[in-house]
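Morning!

This is the sequence you dropped in the shared folder:
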Amino acid sequence: MKQDSFARRHQGRVGWSQQPCVTPSVSGGGHRVSSGRMFLWTGSKGAQGSGGERRTIYQKVREYDVLDKRKTVTALKAGEDRAILLGLSMILFSVMMYFVLGITMVRSYSDSVWTEESSCTVLNSTIMAEINCTYSCGSECRKSSKYPCLQVFVSLNTSGKVVRLSHNEEAQDTNPKCFYVPKCRKDYNAMHTVIMNISERLKTQQQVLCYTDPGEQQDSALLTRIYGRVAVFHSLFWPTCTLIGGTIIIAMVKLTQYLSIMCEQVGRIKR
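The structure's back. Tokens below.
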């Protein structure tokens, strides 16, 4: 009996001594495991947060870059469109000027038969008669007047032929007998004064430059031409410059677009 009671006490002590040893170890192990899990979970959360922030910053930078590129492309496209429009306007303006000059100056220059320059000697310049003319005195008013007819004869130094001299093609077409046809006015004295001044300048035996018909179909010569070579050249010079300038502008824009496309293709190949 004593032995049984002693054994029970001994087992109880042993059990009591083992229980505290086992329980702290289990509880301590559990605590360590849970703390390790918490540490790992906290660290993974921090890594995920930093990665998300980096991605957000990268996306913002990327969006700004894309917006800047779009703005730049839009600005360049607008500038190119304006440049092309300017070039086309210049070309259209030059074509219109060619059309207007072609039916006025160039046509008159090409239809004129007095193309050969020659030296002439003035033989005489006299007022032969008075020619009737009409002038406008209102919207539906026409009155008559007169102007003195000045006849000038010259001798061609190259051939010695005597021909009648006219001021230009317009005077030749209006009245071939008179050297100069003034604008009809009410004041006859004013027109007479103009004609007398011209007669005094065309003195006898004076050498003047005149234009003759090389085909000798006309028995007259001209002192000046309405549209000479110099006038035609200056009238066609500026439209030609405008046409060339517009063509160069369009060509430069197209060349710039081609080079930009080539640069983009090269950049994609390198990537």
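Headline: The two ends are 95 Å apart (CA to CA).

More detail when I'm at my desk.
O.
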